């Protein structure tokens, strides 16, 4: 994990962007936390999505979820990918967007990681443990999590938000580990709201937060996002591109 964090630091230093907002999903959330600790001068606001502080944590992935993620009991790459993606998403998403689900399955099959890459990612994730250090993060932090996450059970998100001083937890119903895909409009809105708010405060919210019910995204949500200020709009565009790239590897 130190290597990945070092690469992130090197890139930010090379680009000369200075202090910036950082968002990390799943394994990328590990990198984002470590970055906020080793180079707080580079991290303005921190957004952690479907992740944890590692270590033993309050609740481990169940044996069944691990078996599904690894495609145990399947006899083809396609069946394994479909089983893993089903375990990574909520029931509502699979029922409401079957075409999109199949499109992501095909995408993952077309750009699967090598066995070595998969192993190294899994090893880095298994060894990661910031349980004793995450409380030293000073950046204002938003934690977003899917209430049906089987890969990183929600108890881990609650523990993460409680461990980071002043962090806020947004738990989104009807979503699993890929909450940023399943409920992308809601995640977008929460991220932009947080980046523009200038305030923090440890609290947990469910389907809705602030002035609107986030669980029921309006048709105008996307338009509102892209009418936001230029700096935030550009940052979110880059962030969402990175999120989609994340789907190219298994957690």
UniProtKB/TrEMBL annotation:
Domain AB hydrolase-1: 10-183
InterPro entries listed in its UniProt record: AB_hydrolase, AB_hydrolase_1, AB_hydrolase_fold
UniProt-recorded name of the protein: Beta-ketoadipate enol-lactone hydrolase
EC number(s) recorded for this UniProt protein: 3.1.1.24
Alphabetical keyword list: Hydrolase
Molecular function, one GO term: 3-oxoadipate enol-lactonase activity
Organism domain of life: Bacteria
UniProt KW Hydrolase keyword: yes
Source species: uncultured Rubrobacteraceae bacterium
